[in-house]
Amino acid sequence: MVKHEKFAPAPRYGFPANAKGFLFPPVAWAAFFVAIYSAQGAGCAAVEAGSLGLGVLRLLLAGLTVLTAAAILAVGIWSALAFRHIRREKVGADDGVRQSRFLAESAALSAGLFLVATLWIGLPIAWTNPCGG
């Protein structure tokens, strides 16, 4: 059986140059969004009841922000590096290089967008009272 160049298997690229890398930032941000507002609501109720200090609540919310921002930033850098690597490869008509390049670049841009969204929600913790008043 003769293998034609046209039917060669597409190159396989791993995580960030695939759909999982593209979807990681929005999923991480959505989980962060739910977690931070849930923790803020429960924490403020605990502060009012006197069972939790405001400093502990701020530390928890800041920790969630830093953890999420670090994960999204890491995927963004990894995606940008993958894009630079894939960009150097020759693009054929039927291979997966073009798709992997698109997904890696989109994952990097998506990570940038959701990093800004994470910081936009998390940074006010530093200068405002999370429980109002």
Account of the protein in words:
Helices cover 71% and strands 0% of the residues. It has 133 residues and is an all-alpha fold. The N and C termini lie far apart (77 Å).
Share of helical residues: over 70%
How many angstroms does the end-to-end distance come to? 77 Å
Q: What is the average per-residue confidence, as pLDDT, rounded to a whole number? A: 82
Low-confidence stretches: 1-11
Supply the helix-strand structural class: mainly alpha
Give the helices and strands as they follow along the chain: HHHH
Give Rg in angstroms: 21 Å
Q: Biggest β-sheet: count, sense, barrel?
A: none
Number of helices: 4
Counted beta strands: 0
Shape, please?
A: rod-shaped
Q: Strand percentage, roughly?
A: under 5%
Brief summary:
It is built from 4 helices and no strands. It has 133 residues and is an all-alpha fold.
